[in-house]
Amino acid sequence: MKKWLLIPLIPVVLIVAALLVFVQPDDAEAQIIKPPTCTAPGATPNQPGTGSYGGISLSPVQMDSVQKILSVAKGMSITRRGAVVALQAAMQESTLNPQATNGNAVGLFQQIAPGPFNAYVGYDRTDPEPASKGFFTVLTKRAPNYETDPRTNAELAEEVERSGLPGHYTKWQPFAEAAVAALFDGSGPPLDCSDKSVKGRIQVQVRGNEVTLPAEAGVSGVIQTATPQVATAVAAGLSWLGTTYAWGGGDANGPTKGVRDGGVADQHGDYNKIGFDCSGLTLYSYAQAGVKITRPSNSQLTNAKMTVPFSQARPGDLLFWGTHHVAMYLGQINGQHMMLEAPQSGDVVKVSKVRTGGDFRNVGARPIPGG
Predict the structure, then answer these.
(1) 38 is annotated as an active-site residue
(2) Residue 216 catalytic?
(3) In this predicted model, what pLDDT tens digit does every residue of 14-45 receive, in sequence order?
(4) pTM: predicted TM-score of the whole model, two decimal places
(5) Which residues, listed in sequence order, are joined to residue 328 by a DSSP beta bridge?
(6) Candidate list 93, 177, 325, 337, residue with the active-site label
(7) Which among 93, 168, 177, 278 is annotated as catalytic?
């Protein structure tokens, strides 16, 4: 079975246009695979006479982070300049990845608890909304007149972050200005989110709340989900059909190297493979829809916001076997209950019939209660 290796390219490289992409290692069949994106239009010139920046393409996780930062800014009556400063800081500190962790530094703004004024305690620092509130709390305390402050935006970001490298925030100002213009007050052109497909190893077409099964699924049909958000999660998972199973593999950004389990997974060499395990696949899928769920598999049931009997399950719900396996329900296709799963070591991400015998829990967890 062919092994597809995908490694996140971080940090984002700003040349003429900065693109966050995933690239495969150099081999005969290597190719660049881009996640679904929204693109910020060009903003101010880089330097006089050098022209304008191109757009910066954002993954769904990054786009969700931007929207949440700006939503919190509005709720706290933060001005447009303050929102720009926050986006500059978050792009530099984490490339807008809320799951970023570097030792004790966590989240969008790499906050270290308790933080100045105890602003970084009492919440999950990987949650973009309270993390943004923490950032703005420190900004307004350390620079209460930030709107008219003569310092540069980069210096204001440094006033909050205290990284020792204020110049690193400067390069993200054109992007932040463009995103805020498009989303904060509508003064600029809207972000371009015209591409509705979901790209992983393969491409999956999404139209509103409908997901068309790709040929790699082995069955044909259109999945009807309750909302476009659920459709995004379903399509994101399907886009990795055929990807190698790797115990412990997968995170919010895609496939990762597996880990040792001291048993079957080690016998299959999962610790040297790039791929997903069952909960890594479902975690990734919902992350693309802006929803954070936990791992391992059993915690996705015990921490579920809503559960339903299997008889009431909808496409996108999570199904469970004992405390060891989770899969995503796809609904009835050609009269059969079907699911998407990363089954076990030695296998690949695939569409399967729902197995209702054995230790099947006969329950569905709904990560998006309204979906």
Answers:
(1) no
(2) no
(3) 322 333 332 222 222 222 233 445 666 654 43
(4) 0.53
(5) 318, 340
(6) 325
(7) 278
